[in-house]
UniProtKB/TrEMBL annotation:
Residues 230-361 form the DNA mismatch repair protein S5 domain. Signal peptide: none annotated. It comes from Anaeramoeba flamelloides. This is DNA mismatch repair protein mlh1. Belongs to the DNA mismatch repair MutL/HexB family. The chain holds residues 1 to 373 of 889 of the full protein. It is found in: Nucleus.
Length: 373
């Protein structure tokens, strides 16, 4: 057999492979765009979908906007306004820092950006493919070669609109798998629900090309908090269906653990039996330092406690917003930032579980007392 030589992959192939890690589906692209809008200080985020986000995913925000001078490199890999030296990672408070999301999206779709900074009188439109600024599809091909000229001044309002069109147009197998399944709108709504619960100061709206009415609206109300958001989203179930879980404690005499959460009570299980599917689909929401993450260990332990104490087979509804000092959390273990690692995991989990147990035991006692009366 002929020996196989080791060759270096071309830059284009490397980028496409890396893009696939960050952007696995329309909802993962949306997560990145929402996080960028939140990082930009937005209080209004509107999402518009065509064909479950596959034909187009549009996010409009009222954040700080992107400066004209930054537009040529917006979709270049590893370009970010949020991190400049490695040590900044220890205390990072923004969602983004890798400068990878827009670049990755541009390798698997066509991006159009319209943006206007606050205080500016004019907006700019720019289009991107494969990490680069490209000529606008509406421009005359012969005339404009220069980067600066590819950016078109437009009438706009402060904030940013990003359109992602024809996602996975150059990845036929992925494209096919999404054409078959029509679960993506639900996945998108799950992401929006989670971020709107954890960001009650922000208005969220989701619309779909084929539908007249919005799929989702969450309006800001004065002093809104996450529990109110949950009530707004799952109205019929929520009345008297949740318990507040709050923790504020020093762990191992060295750092502060803060947790704000909403967890379901006995009432919830009675109501949810013949219920709406939405609440079952988004029934475990975990934010660590404002990042939406997955953590099977926490989920399994919580389900076990519910089984033991409330004797229920159904999955509880859990929303946890865990705040730890940034230096205790490593967010840099996966490009999609879906998983995070934290120091003293066992101690932290034990603290959360003990508090949850006490909360549920007290609830059980009160429920029994009420029944006796
Ligand atoms: P990261 O978020 O890791 O910095 P991204 O590729 O997601 O990387 O975004 C690159 C840069 O583009 C950001 O650092 C930010 O400066 C800018 N940007 C992206 N989206 C927005 C937005 N909606 N509003 C303002 N700036 C944005
Ligand atoms: Mg980002």
């Amino acid at each position: 057999m002929q020996e196989k030589r080791i060759k270096k992959l071309s830059e284009q192939v490397i980028r496409k492979i890396a893009a696939g890690e960050v952007i696995q589906r329309p909802s993962s692209a949306l997560k990145e765009l929402i996080e960028n809008s939140l990082d930009a200080g937005s209080t209004y985020i509107k999402i518009h979908l065509k064909k479950e986000g596959m034909n187009m995913l549009r996010v409009i925000d009222n954040g700080c906007g992107i400066q004209f001078q930054d537009l040529p490199r917006l979709c270049e890999r590893f370009t970010t306004s949020k991190l400049s030296k490695y040590s900044d990672l220890k205390k990072i408070t923004t969602f983004g820092f890798r400068g990878e999301a827009l670049s990755s999206i541009s390798y698997v779709s066509h991006i159009t950006v319209i943006t206007q900074t606050r205080g500016s009188q004019i907006g700019y439109k720019a289009e991107y493919k494969n990490g680069e600024l490209v000529q606008s599809r509406s421009q005359d091909k012969k005339t404009n070669q220069d980067d600066q000229i590819k950016i078109i001044p437009v009438a706009s309002i402060p904030g940013t609109q990003i359109d992602i069109e024809n996602l996975f147009y150059n990845q036929p197998s992925r494209l096919r798998s999404f054409q078959k399944n029509n679960q993506e709108t639900q996945k998108i709504l799950h992401i929006v629900r989670c971020y709107s619960i954890n960001n009650p100061q922000v208005n969220f709206i989701v619309t779909q090309e084929e539908k007249k009415l919005p799929l989702f609206i969450c309006k800001y109300s004065f002093n809104a908090n996450s529990l109110e958001r949950i009530q707004e989203i799952y109205s019929i179930f929520v009345q008297k269906s949740f318990l507040n879980l709050q923790i504020n404690t020093i762990i191992d005499q060295s750092f502060l653990l803060q947790l704000e959460g909403c967890v379901s009570n006995l009432n919830y299980f009675n109501k949810v039996k013949d219920s709406e599917k939405n609440i079952k689909k988004s029934n475990f929401i975990l934010f660590i330092n404002q990042r939406l993450v997955e953590n099977k260990k926490i989920k399994i332990q919580i389900n076990k406690i519910y089984k033991e104490i409330l004797k229920t087979k159904d999955h509880p509804f859990i929303f946890l917003n865990l705040i730890l000092p940034p230096e205790c959390v490593d967010v840099n273990i996966h490009p999609s930032k879906k998983q995070v690692q934290f120091l003293q995991e066992d101690l932290i989990l034990a603290t959360i579980m003990n508090n949850l147990k006490t909360l549920l035991m007290n609830h059980l006692c009160e429920d029994q007392k009420e029944k006796e009366n």
